[in-house]
């Protein structure tokens, strides 16, 4: 009985396949995989993962436990299969992720050759690429919403194993209206994330007056360098979003004057959150999204995970600020032209360094899957 007949005969998901399994194990045709050799996505003793999505199998192959390169096998279940509750797109129209599990063995048919890792897709990525140009026909559209390249890159960058052993693996819903990125945790709960820039040139801010006057004092060369900058990966970040917790972190950091959309000041609030220091302009919002920060083993892991090393001291104990820090006593926006120039030079340096860190990570995590 083939996999299609089996699924129909056992009242499993109505999916015609073919079915795949991603792993680091080196298998041969005819081998049986049984529950107990789990990947990071599945229950360690009760089920084995199968998918009709080559992309899902690829993610398993890249991020499963074990030594050696990731491998993808075409497989056939030998018993009933069911929707995987942690990986299927619950609440949408059916199991769009095409991810399933079974308590019975799955038989290896053959190995899939020539597939590319997610990092291979962005091999040679230019950290100076401007996401504003990703879809030039959509003039002035927000690349955080419409740039497919930025969305895909976010998924690649933030799919990493945490110190806890959990794989943080956000997925892109097939229907953009269902969310930007979604992470499904071990309990099956789904968490939504959105993209946004973490630095601001204040090009179109109309207040405070001191900021407007500071920008007005720029010469033509400075205006060309600092205003209307390109949107590159060094300035891109994902933040958790949910309707019951408003404002979101990103909304609060952009609208509260003591933060003024500055990542250095945001990071100081995050540092205090992890340190148990309650006084910061974002304390209430960070507490509301405490489950997001609890994913990380403290401030150090958060910083390293999102490539913020150039905003902290080498020991990760202090934040390095774009402007002299006064413990949130004054607005975060520059108040003079000199301050604005200092601020913009510091942010441009940070964006460039973070972009280079990201490009290096992509290069280091680009693996060749064609060889043995």
Summary?
The chain is an alpha+beta fold and 372 residues long. It has two domains: 3-115, ADP-ribosylation fold (Alpha-Beta Barrel); 119-364, no CATH class.
Q: What is the structural class?
A: alpha+beta
What is the beta-strand fraction? Answer: 5-15%
The number of helical elements comes to 13
Largest sheet: 4 strands, antiparallel
Q: Which shape, going by the Cα principal axes?
A: elongated
| Order of adjacent strands in the largest pleated sheet | 1-4-7-2
Distance between the termini: 32 Å
Q: Averaging pLDDT over every residue, what do you get?
A: 85
Order of SSEs, N→C? HEEEHEEEEHHHEEEEHHEHHHHHH
Helix content: 25-40%
Q: What is the count of distinct domains?
A: 2
Strand tally is 12
Low-confidence stretches: 1-12, 38-44, 88-95, 367-372
Rg of Cα set: 23 Å
Describe the fold and architecture.
The protein is α+β, with helices and mostly antiparallel strands. It folds into two domains: 113 residues, ADP-ribosylation fold, CATH 3.20.170; 246 residues, no CATH class. Helix content is 31%, strand content 14%. It contains 13 helices and twelve strands. The strands form four sheets. The chain has a four-stranded antiparallel sheet with strand order 1-4-7-2. Strand 8 and strand 9 form a beta hairpin. Helix 6 packs across helix 13. The two termini are 32 Å apart.
Summarize this structure as a short list of keywords or feature phrases:
single chain; 372 residues; alpha+beta; 2 domains; 4-stranded antiparallel sheet; 3-stranded antiparallel sheet; 31% helix; elongated; disordered N terminus
């Amino acid at each position: 009985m083939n996999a299609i007949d089996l699924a129909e005969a056992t009242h499993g998901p109505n999916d015609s396949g073919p079915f795949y399994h991603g792993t680091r194990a080196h298998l041969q045709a005819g081998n049986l995989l049984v529950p107990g050799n789990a990947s990071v996505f599945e229950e360690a003793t009760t089920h084995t993962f199968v998918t009709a999505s080559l992309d899902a199998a690829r993610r398993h192959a890249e991020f499963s436990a074990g030594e050696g390169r990731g491998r993808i096998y075409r497989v056939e279940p030998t018993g009933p299969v069911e929707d995987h509750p942690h990986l299927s797109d619950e609440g949408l129209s059916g199991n769009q992720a095409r991810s399933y599990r079974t308590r019975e063995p799955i038989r290896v048919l053959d190995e899939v050759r020539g597939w590319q890792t997610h990092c291979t897709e962005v091999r040679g990525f230019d950290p100076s690429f401007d996401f504003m140009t990703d879809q030039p026909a959509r003039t002035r559209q927000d690349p955080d919403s419409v740039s497919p390249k930025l969305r895909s890159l976010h998924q690649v960058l933030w799919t990493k194993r945490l110190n806890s052993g959990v794989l943080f693996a956000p997925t892109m819903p097939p229907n953009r209206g269902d969310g930007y990125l979604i992470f499904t945790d071990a309990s099956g709960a789904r968490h939504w994330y959105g993209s946004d820039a973490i630095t601001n040139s204040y090009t179109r801010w109309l207040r405070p007056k001191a900021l407007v006057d500071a920008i007005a004092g720029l010469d033509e060369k400075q205006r060309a360098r600092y205003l209307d900058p390109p949107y590159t990966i060094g300035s891109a970040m994902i933040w958790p979003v949910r309707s019951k917790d408003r404002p979101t972190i990103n909304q609060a950091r952009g609208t509260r004057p003591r933060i003024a959309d500055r990542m250095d000041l945001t990071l100081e609030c995050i540092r205090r959150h992890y340190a148990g220091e309650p006084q910061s302009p974002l304390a209430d919002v960070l507490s509301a999204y405490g489950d997001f920060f609890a994913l990380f083993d403290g401030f150090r892991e958060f910083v390293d995970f999102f490539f913020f090393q150039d905003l902290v001291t080498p020991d990760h104990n202090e934040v390095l600020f774009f402007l002299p820090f006064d413990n949130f006593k004054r607005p975060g926006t520059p108040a003079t032209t000199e301050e604005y120039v200092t601020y913009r030079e510091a942010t441009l340096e940070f964006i460039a360094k973070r972009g280079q860190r990201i490009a290096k990570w992509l290069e280091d995590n680009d693996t060749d899957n064609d060889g043995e």
